[in-house]
Specification:
Its main location: cytoplasm. It is found in: Cytoplasm. By secondary structure, the protein is of the alpha+beta class. Helices cover 58% and strands 16% of the residues. The strands form two sheets. Strands 3-4-6-5 form a four-stranded antiparallel sheet. The chain starts with a helix and ends with a helix.
């Protein structure tokens, strides 16, 4: 493995950490409705647990209401029960076949809890990035030990990986700050 490969691998892994963080942050609900909120809710469908999006059409009615339209007649009650029992704090109401899921406004206490969750997700992402940096640095030191590269090349590699790490952590901080501002906005 060359220095360029080490750098490219580290960059790719750090980019995946950021993408994973973005996915986790989308699951944290703000006052607005978002169909992705129900992605983690599973419902029983012919003996197996599947996400709601695989048994119903999930869309937005307005900024604060999600609509869930089951594809089969008998699924409405099961989906309603699954949403109620999830830890999202949502209370769906049935209107014929259509389920309306209003998003309750966030209390100040709940907003503070959500910012803690967001910070925790950010910290997890930073740990993942630092682990990638450590692995890349170990690869470079191994190349030096095996006399495949010189000390100057190893030092340059460590510096480049550190610059990539700094950029990635700055991006994580920016994402976390943006999500916190979104949560705290009334």
């Amino acid at each position: 493995m060359s220095i360029a490969e080490i750098k490219k691998t580290a960059e790719a892994k750090m980019a995946r950490s950021i993408e994973s963080l973005k996915g986790e942050l989308q699951k944290v609900r703000t006052g607005r409705a978002h169909p992705g909120i129900l992605d983690q809710v599973h419902v029983e469908y012919y003996g197996s647990m599947v996400p709601i999006s695989q048994v119903a059409n999930v869309s937005l009615l307005d900024a604060r209401t999600i609509s869930v339209q089951p594809w089969e007649k008998g699924m409405g009650a099961k989906i309603e029960k699954a949403i109620r029992e999830s830890d999202l704090g949502l209370n769906p109401s049935a209107q014929g076949d259509l389920l309306r899921v209003p998003m309750p406004p966030l209390t100040e206490e709940r907003r503070k809890e959500l910012t803690k969750v967001v910070r925790h997700e950010g910290e997890d992402a930073k740990v993942a990035v630092r682990n990638v940096r450590r692995d890349a640095n170990e690869h470079a030191k191994k190349l030096l030990k095996d006399k495949e590269i010189g000390e100057d090349d190893e030092r340059r590699s460590l510096d480049e990986v550190q610059k990539i790490t700094d950029r990635t952590i700055a991006e994580i901080d920016r994402l976390i700050a943006g999500k916190e501002a979104e949560i705290m906005a009334v």
